[in-house]
Design brief:
This protein is of the alpha+beta class. The protein is about 20% helix and about 45% strand. The protein is built from two helices and four strands. The chain has a four-stranded antiparallel beta sheet with strand order 2-3-1-4, with helices on one face.
Length: about 100
């Protein structure tokens, strides 16, 4: 079975917990080797963040559970890499 190596998520979260706390919780999950959270937008009650997660065998359901426990919601899955290695997105002439 093919393992998930990278997930890119668009997430809406409350101000608390902080992105630092959320990153630590996600980083503690088995199969995850790194987490990057970038703040995209802030409003009165929420933060819109982009979360990039990398690892050898990411369990999406566990990631979703931690995010929801923090009071956040996944708006969309913006990228997934699965298989034996990471495959980077490339630009083709059709993308221009």
């Amino acid at each position: 079975m093919s393992a998930i190596k990278r997930l890119i998520l668009d997430v809406l979260k409350p101000h608390v917990p902080t992105v630092i706390e959320l990153a630590k919780r996600l980083g503690d999950l088995e199969g995850i080797s790194g987490v990057n959270i970038s703040l995209k937008e802030v409003d009165k009650d929420t933060d819109n963040v982009k979360i990039t997660i990398e690892g050898e065998n990411i369990d999406y359901e566990e990631v979703e559970k931690v995010i929801e426990e923090c009071g956040a919601v996944i708006h969309s899955i913006d990228g997934v890499v699965a298989g034996m290695r990471l495959v980077e997105e490339i630009t083709t002439p059709q993308d221009r």
